[in-house]
Fold this protein.
Amino acid sequence: MYVNKMLFLFVFFWMATPLNAGSVTEETPASSARFVANKNGTVTDVVTGLLLLQNANCFEPMTWSDALDTVAFLGHGQCGLTDHSVSGQWRLPSKEELDILLIAKNSPEFIGVQSAHYWSGTSSDCLPDLAWYAPLAFGYVNGGDKTNTYRIWPVSGKVKAK
């Protein structure tokens, strides 16, 4: 028991990544200028070109595996989407893209943003039972057990190259 607790604490502090650690947050305009609502259930991040689901509270918390399955089938007609997207176009954000969610949480273009944990689609390289998530209330990225239940905030597209 003691070893498990120590391992958890080591992993927690070792894996925690501060906000703005990734390149997706460099030279960012104010939150309200950075995100543009597309009036079809999506919001564009003008810095990265990434498309985010406007409703950050469309799904109940779920395990990482269920989150991957759920987002894979997201499309037009669900969660307020009128963008003609089809299954397979949406995904969970990468570990690096979680920083975008940490900025987007305060933008008025989004609805239903919770002060909760949101999954990424990235597994831990060193501990395969963990995946990255962002606790929006605290502003960092961390690793959590894939059986935990966290929220999902789907994205679409790729971050544009600099």
Remarks:
- The helical segments are 2-15, 31-34, 64-72, 98-104.
- The radius of gyration is 16 Å.
- The first helix runs from residue 2 to 15.
